[in-house]
Structures are given as C-alpha cells and as structure tokens.
Amino acid sequence: MYSRKSPLPYKMRDVVLPGDAACPGCPIPIAWKVLGAVFGEKMILVIPACCSSVVVGPYPYSSIKASVVHVAFASAAAVASGIAEALERRGITDVYVVAWAGDGGTADIGMASLSGAAERNHNIIYIMYDNEAYMNTGIQRSSATPYGAWTTTTPIIGKTEHKKDVAKIMIAHGIPYVATASIGYPHDLYAKLERAKSIHGFKFIHLHAPCPVGWRFDPRYTIKVAKLAVETGMWILYEYYDGKLRISGPSKPFIDSKRRKPIEEYLKLQGRFRKITPEKVEEIRKYVDENWRWVKLLS
To answer: Is residue 78 part of a domain?
Structure first.
C-alpha cells in the first residue's frame, strides 16, 4: 500500500505481526495495519469481547506489537477513558488510546459507556469496526445489521429493521471529530486517523468491515465488497468536524445517484441477502437515498 520511500514513521509490519488468528479474508488485520502505520507502538488498544480478542492471539503471545487491554463487553469506552486520564495526569502526551470495538460492543452492549465517554469528551479515539452482526459468537443480529440481511437470530426473510447509524448519534453528542471509513479505502482511513490523532478530545470513527463468514461471500472478495458498498452509495464516507460535514474523496463521485452502481451488485455477492425480495431491495434503495439527502444537507 505504501512505497519504501514513504515518509511514514512506521511500516505496517512493524506493529502488526504475521501469524494472527483471523479468518481468511478478515478485515480486522487490514485495518490494524493502517493503525500501525499511523501510531506505531505508541498506542494502547482497548478491546472488549469480540472477534479481535481472538485475532490478537492467546496470552502470552500477541499478533500486535503494541499495548493491548482486554476488557468486558460493555466497558471499552469507560476503560479507555480511564487510561487516557491516567496518561494525562502523568504528563504522557505521545501515547494514543484507541478503543477498538465491534458493532455489538458499540451500538448495543457498549452504547451507555460510549455515550458517557463522548459526553465527557475524554481524549480517546473510538473505532467501531462494523461487521454488522455478532460474528464471534455465531452471527447473531445486532442493531447495526442492515435491513433484509440474514443472521442466525433474524427471521428467514432477513432483518426487518434498518441499521442503527451510530456515526449520526455521535455527531449529536457534539464531539470534536466523527468520521466514517472503510477497509476498502486504506488511504482514506489513514488520513482520518491522522486527523483524529491531531485533535484533542473524543474522536469516533465508524469503520465498515465486511465479514466473509457472516456475510456469506468468498474471502477473496473482502475488498471488492467493501468498495461496492461505497460505489453503490450503501456506505457513505465523510468527516464531521468544526460543525461541518465533508464528503470524503472516494464517495464524492457518487453524490449524483446516476453515477452509483446498482445496489443489487452489492447485495448479490452476499449470501446473507439470498432471500431478499424486490420489494425489500426497493426499501433499501429508499434508505440509501434518504441517507444521501441527509449528508448533502449537512455538507
């Protein structure tokens, strides 16, 4: 992704080591490599119960050459807040506290501690890697599971409610920085992490992370699926800071709905949408259009 002549202080493999316990095609190590390029070993990852707890590897071994704190499902934001306060009291300013949690540990079980940490404006970066279900425990539905998607705890026809948009909720908290990102666009993620790194206070990044196992697609298509989410308008990349929303480069060509790819191209690659009906596809299309109206209104 980056050339040897890159001015980056860290190579991605300096921090993320080979031999992790991720499934083939897993988006987690892809994102961690970008984190490693930005923060190097100068980060403390706070990870609640999730797939990432397994990917890191069993103690005393680790696939990440940085400090990792494993915590209970609901407490990532609270623990990260405490660590950030302790660092500040000790005058340590060159170590970054990153809460790394899935959609279950963020949109559902961890929502209370997330909201509290945001309201108190603790100096942390919270990354919600969103694979849209509880993948580690058997592909159960979360509130971030999209409409029409199958999980082991949805009706056979798929989820009957739309996805909870946590980024919008965090914007409503009035925190200094909110962004959406995708593992399909690592340079965009890198730039957003760099911006978050430069801002004091609570920063939230909602990271779209397709899961081959839970979404039922061939592991070789992880990046393809991630990019199709953006190209169809299903996932909009933006930043919100200084009271203004800015559409990110990869999403700018798709402001015009005529330039977006049909959402069917995104859905048909995923077995979780196998039983979706034309009526449900039309409902998803309306949802996408409404999201774009909201983004254009704020930008």
So the answer is: yes
| Residue type present at position 125 | I
Percent of the chain at pLDDT exceeding 70: 96
pLDDT value at position 76? 98
- String of b and e for 184-197 (b: at least 16 CB within 10 Å)? bbbebbbbbbeebe
Distance CA 72, CA 70 (A): 7
**Alpha carbon separation from 44 to 18, 82, 87 (Å, rounded):** 20, 12, 11
pTM over 0.90: yes
- Total domains present in the chain: 1
Domain limits at 37?
A: 12-298
Q: How far does Cα 179 stand from its chain's mean position? A: 10
- The alpha carbon torsion through 49, 55, 60, 64 (nearest 10 deg) reads -110
> Locate tokens 């897993």: which residue?
26
4 part of a folded domain? no
Q: What CATH code is carried by the domain that includes residue 196?
A: 3.40.50.970
